[in-house]
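Troubleshooting log. The previous run stalled partway through. Resubmitting the same two chains, unchanged.
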Amino acid sequence: VTVSELGERRLLARIRARLERVAPPAGLVIGIGDDAAVVTPPRGARAVLTTDAQVEGVHFDRRFSSWCDVGQRALAVNLSDLAAMGAAPRWALVSLALPGSLGVLDVDELTDGLARLAGIHQVGVVGGNLTSTAGPVVVDVMAVGEAGPRDILTRAGGRPGDTLYVSGAIGGAAAGLEMLKAGRVLSEDDPGTRAAWICVDRYRRPAPRVRLGVSTGRMRAARAAIDVSDGLADAARQLAEASGCGVEIDADALPLEPGARAWWRECGHDPVTAALAGGDDYELLLAIPPAWRGRLRHLRSRVADPPLTAIGTLTKAAAGFVLIRQGRRGPLPEGFVHWAS
Amino acid sequence: VTVSELGERRLLARIRARLERVAPPAGLVIGIGDDAAVVTPPRGARAVLTTDAQVEGVHFDRRFSSWCDVGQRALAVNLSDLAAMGAAPRWALVSLALPGSLGVLDVDELTDGLARLAGIHQVGVVGGNLTSTAGPVVVDVMAVGEAGPRDILTRAGGRPGDTLYVSGAIGGAAAGLEMLKAGRVLSEDDPGTRAAWICVDRYRRPAPRVRLGVSTGRMRAARAAIDVSDGLADAARQLAEASGCGVEIDADALPLEPGARAWWRECGHDPVTAALAGGDDYELLLAIPPAWRGRLRHLRSRVADPPLTAIGTLTKAAAGFVLIRQGRRGPLPEGFVHWAS
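Second attempt completed without errors. Output:
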């Protein structure tokens, strides 16, 4: 059965039923089904607003991601943006542009993927929009989070001398996507394949660093933060620029995903360059002054997973964007941009 | 110059500069340029969240709407949803999916149209997202409004016996679109053409009934409300269904847009049926008990434009959805749905 055979009304009822299986979130007054959703913002908190889209053929490919992955990813990338601001996610809206030929079971899967991640982070999917399109599937999510007025992390707070920390491992998602494109055979039997699986999983189902972001904000453990969605090199540049700083990244300190390192070597590419430029990791990059080591220790004891790795330093703006590799200084590569020629 | 020639970063800077010409809204803490926007919700108010998309080829056609119209419309349809809840619009996010071949000047126009309407209603466009697409242009807007806890209007509050009022005139937008499709020549010289112009304008640049919606909520002058975006017949059905009622619409009382009446007659169609089924009017439909005539008078004295016209009554559910025309009772037609076969 396709979307156009089922029709808008019945499709909406179906999506709504699947989303409402998740427990209703705190502060929900009116959910799906009216002209708009109504929520009660917590007293004294700031509201943090973000939106990010998944476009078929740009952000995902039906051959490499299940619809469940697509739904989960559409929410995950938004939760990652909120985490980078130190905000706890609360509510989300989902706007779907769907071709009439799409299968209803595919929409079910997409909805379930989204609902699953919403359930994990207690996010209420309180509304949205359905429209037909003659083009690719577009899943647009808008997320609303909350943070105490003094707990908000911006990109702009860094100062020369701050150490840069990245969470988790980088380069996995980009390598995973390349493995899928290259048709690398994945079986769970040998250790090499397990490392590859992890990369593919990082691409398909990114885990937004919600707990780390919220804890960092509440503990005021970082002076600036950004999420690593368009590559670590890009994130470091953006954070440095917004903070009026330059940046030095230590290539030898980067926590490369092991499967990605192996994969890029196998392909004859430099793993460090690939990991710096590759997007979709959704880790957090934090700027923490060396003097705040007590707060950092506290943060690490509170959030043991993902680990934080020191990978560089903010410098004076005049020093520019530098990559240090085995003692040699070179320019930091650029990250992913849309419509790049 | 196309979007892909300019590139993401410069396009973003350009859009940002154009949006920031509008005065910053109340409560803005962090606007465009970080991982997310941060705002301070007013104390004690509810937050009202909505999203609505404009998809090229579905909601608009480059031949019939300027990019300025598209931008304005993308925000207008969201403000209309908020108005139908009695909520004052405060902030908006804009998510654009653009093909690389689109002209940068077109994006400028789109942005300016959106910024213009945002300025009129003091809405802050505080963030958004840019992505490339291989398909049609998609403009997805998410709007956040506010309303006092007791001022919220839902679809579900109506009761049998309530009178239904519609704002302004209906049928204009659908007729205007048909005129554009048929290539009707529009000049400002003769009166017939002026009436046609009004219809085209209603289609291209819908004016959301923000003041009416907010005043109705604050004065508690209606028991239920909905916006007429998919046709009056659809809105009446939806409001009645959500309220657990039936509905009777008096066809002879409908405030048809004069140019639309003339156009449909010219085409050999029934103007009443066309106006009931035609979408895109973005008027409000209110359910007001006869006993609340004092509040209604007060509302009308406060918001003289658009006028409110009584067009029917909520009935018991068992009575169904009825259209009364010159004394005869018949079924109420359906409205627009996506993927209708």
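Takeaways: Chain A touches chain B through 75 residues (CB under 8 Å). Residues 228 and 309 of chain A are 14 Å apart (CA to CA).
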